[in-house]
Amino acid sequence: MSTKRVLVTGGLGFIGSHTVVALQNEGFEVVIIDNLSNSSIDVLGGITQITGKTPEFENIDLREKAAVKNFFDKYPDIEDVIHFAASKAVGESVTNPLLYYENNLSTLVYLLHELNKKENSKFIFSSSCTVYGQADNLPITENAPVKKAESPYGNTKQIGEEIIQDTCKVNKSFKAISLRYFNPVGAHPTAEIGELPIGTPQNLIPFITQTAIGKRKELSVFGDDYPTKDGTAVRDYIHVMDLAEAHVHALKRLMNANEKDNYEVFNLGTGKGNSVLEVINSFEKVSGEKLPYKIVGRREGDITAAYADTTKANKELKWEANRSLDEALKSAWKWQLVVKKAEEEEN
């Protein structure tokens, strides 16, 4: 068992917290950096409940260059980083682009500055399938062209990948992997941790569960005139635990990398697309709840369909998504019920 210490930035967020669980279950020691701007310190307790171990935690704003340097001075043995910390609401990035460029790019640069000083550091970057835009061919392979970004958020993922790639070119001992996520959904099966959007959810699943629990009046389905089987947009929904486990596989690949290219990209999805209406039907089936929804006009910047070709990740990372959409929605609903109970107890 490895007792290597790994830094997980944004480790109390949705994907970050589930990845911390997966790492700790594999015997890694984890240090989390999170500034709690879009997460809650309570998540630390959830991680501890699941794994029996409390990760070390540092409340640091990665936009402060000196704070990043001080962190690595305090933890000189850390050379492996999984970087989640970023702002991720597409709509907000359109109205507040500078916040996104500062949050998502300066933090990346400061981390890479510190890792560059080390002998053989390893870096995993949270990227996104948004880099492909509306791909010319489906399913989407890693060789699909990166399209002009539709939003500042998408642009920060593209530029982030370029920054890492350029760093790898000049520093051959630095190894990095960019993981392009499709649509992460669900929660840990214990319902100790899950997706906790602050304010109005930007993603479909939390909006569905909040509507079913009575927090939202109804769900808006944006467009039913897409050229898909039922007219609604199609996405690749991957269970967050499958996604989390992929990071462990990626980290092990970096640790065992010999002569491989020191920069690689992988798509993380299920390889299957589901329409919005299929997701609603699946949710109603597993929850037993009837979901109020209405069809409204398309949303600007939304694409028709995106789902992954996962061949490369399956083969090279020796990983595949095993959990079903039903399973993901069942776990998301279980988590929503726990959140509601906690809110009622607080009031």
UniProtKB/TrEMBL annotation:
The residues covered by the NAD(P)-binding domain are 7-330
Cite a GO CC annotation.
Answer: cytosol
In the record, which residues are listed under signal peptide? none
Which GO terms label this protein's molecular function in UniProt?
A: UDP-glucose 4-epimerase activity
GO terms under biological process: galactose metabolic process
Is the keyword Transmembrane in the record?
no
Q: In which pathway is this protein known to take part?
A: Carbohydrate metabolism; galactose metabolism
Q: What is its EC number?
A: 5.1.3.2
Query: What keywords appear on the UniProt entry?
Result: Carbohydrate metabolism, Isomerase, NAD
Task: Tell me what reaction this enzyme catalyses.
Answer: UDP-alpha-D-glucose = UDP-alpha-D-galactose
What cofactors does this protein use? NAD(+)
**Pfam hit, one:** GDP_Man_Dehyd
Q: Which InterPro entries match?
A: NAD(P)-bd_dom (IPR016040), NAD(P)-bd_dom_sf (IPR036291), UDP_G4E (IPR005886)
Give the quaternary structure: Homodimer.
What is the similarity comment for this entry? Belongs to the NAD(P)-dependent epimerase/dehydratase family.
Q: What name does this protein carry? A: UDP-glucose 4-epimerase
